[in-house]
Amino acid sequence: MNIKWTSENSLRLSRILTFAVLVLAVVILFLIPIITQWYDDVSGKEPIMPVLTVCAYIADVIVIAALWELNRLLTNISKQELFTERNTRCVRIISWCCFGLAAVFAVLSFWRLLALLVAVIAAFVGLILRVVKNMLATATELREENDYTI
Amino acid sequence: MPIIVNLDVMMAKRKISAGDLAERVDITPANLSILKNNKAKAVRFSTLEAICRELDCQPGDILEFVKDEFK
User: Fold this and answer.
1) Within a domain: residue B71?
2) What is the span of the domain harbouring residue B30?
């Protein structure tokens, strides 16, 4: 089977992966108590199941929201709608989701220090997305100006 | 926006339709509509020149500055 690597196929792959991760995040939402219990059993450290469960629920909901927006963004891109206010809004929401995740993991780091690393990475990704959002907003303004120059 | 495009007034004076003017100026009717409805953000000199030529008028006959009272 010979699949050509076109931008259309790349976009399709991104949409499939996003949808797959979205489904996974929804499934995980129902398995959180089992996963946190299992973590407490195998970690060998002091049990933190209640805190971990709350943090996992919040983090998973944030991830689902971010993936939903990502899916919406990819749908817009596939419709050839690139520099629009709607897309800027999507990236802004995803950026805030990253900052939200950073906050959740920062709280969790009081019990597990390694969570601080995840918090820093999430905050950094959020920051990058904010810059991308600013760029997208400027590009949208330029496109509008160009479209409305007669 | 304080700049008002009075294209429809001039078109009525010259008795020319939007479709005719769009064709003569070589812009799409959709773009002419944007211009007429004051939705345009900028006008190219070449477009302005073509409109003035076809309507036999001056840029001041089409464009008007109105002071923004809220500022």
Assistant:
1) no
2) 3-65
**Based on the structure, what is the number of domains in chain B?**
1
Cβ proximity of B10 and B60 under 8 Å = no
Structure ipTM: 0.75
Distance separating alpha carbons of residues B18 and A46, to the nearest angstrom: 78
Q: Please give the helix or strand (H or E) that residue B65 lies within, else none.
A: strand B63-65
pLDDT of A147: 87
Reading the block at residue B5, the tokens are 């495009």
Q: Which residue, among A86, A106, A84, A105, has the nearest Cα to A94 in the 3D structure?
A: A86
Distance from CA of A141 to the nearest CA of B (A): 11
Chain A residue nearest residue B31, CA to CA: A150
Q: Give A121's Cβ-side CA count (13 Å radius).
A: 6
The pair of structure tokens assigned to A21 is 């991760």
Intervals of chain B under pLDDT 50: none
- Cβ–Cβ below 8 Å for B39 and A149: no
Q: Which residues of chain A have pLDDT under 70?
A: 1-3
Bridge partners, residue A66, by sequence: none
| Token pair for B1 | 């926006």
The full set of domain ranges for chain A reads: 7-148
Tokens of residue A115, six digits: 């969570």
Report d(CA A72, CA A96) in Å as an integer.
16
